[in-house]
Amino acid sequence: MKRLYKEVVKIKEILSANKFCDVKVPELLDYVTLQFKLERAKFEERAESLLNRVQGPIDMALEQAGISVDDISQVEIIGGGVRVPRVQDILKEVTKQEHLQVHLNGDEGMCFGSAFIASNSSSLFKVKKVYLTQHPRDEVEIRISPLYEVEADISSQVDDEDSEDAVSYNKNVVLYKHKDYLGQKKTINVVYDRAM
Predict the structure, then answer these.
(1) Is residue 169 within 8 Å of 196, Cβ to Cβ?
(2) Domain span(s) for CATH 3.90.640.10 in the chain
(3) Architecture label for domain 1-46
(4) Which tens digit of pLDDT belongs to each residue from 117-176?
(5) How far is CA 36 from its chain centroid?
(6) Of the chain's two ends, which shows fewer C-beta atoms within 10 Å, N or C?
(7) What are the beta bridge partners of residue 140?
């Protein structure tokens, strides 16, 4: 499986630049060599279910940013998957861009970004601060309530000392919203008033 996976990645890269590719995996099984010619059109046809998922993250990113496609003036693409011509065509259709910008090397960009973020959190390096803006994927909410709710008719039967301990306290607090930044610290003050 490791050999096949390695070959598949190589085939994807070749088909990103060429219209066909000669596939040859020697001794895939005992005395069996996998060998055939694969065209880019056939590759795209077989990968259609995966290619249909390209638009989802774009729509989600636009929704979280609170903008529409018309607000975008330029699109910079980075990474391995966007080298596939069909993926680029889908990105052009969705973002309504004639040309996609490719100014960054994916591998170098990841390495530089990691190095700068690591240097920000270290006291040994003196570099200009580089800020990573990343928002939480979901809202984080905390709900505080008693483990056992006391029913109104039951609490009326309890004597006065026990009824003081049966105070119902409920509080809902949103800790992080979609627009907050990851890495923030928040303090919550919880006041428990027995006279409530």
Answers:
(1) yes
(2) 1-46
(3) Alpha-Beta Complex (3.90)
(4) 788 777 777 777 776 667 777 888 888 877 766 554 444 444 444 445 555 667 788 888
(5) 36
(6) N
(7) 176
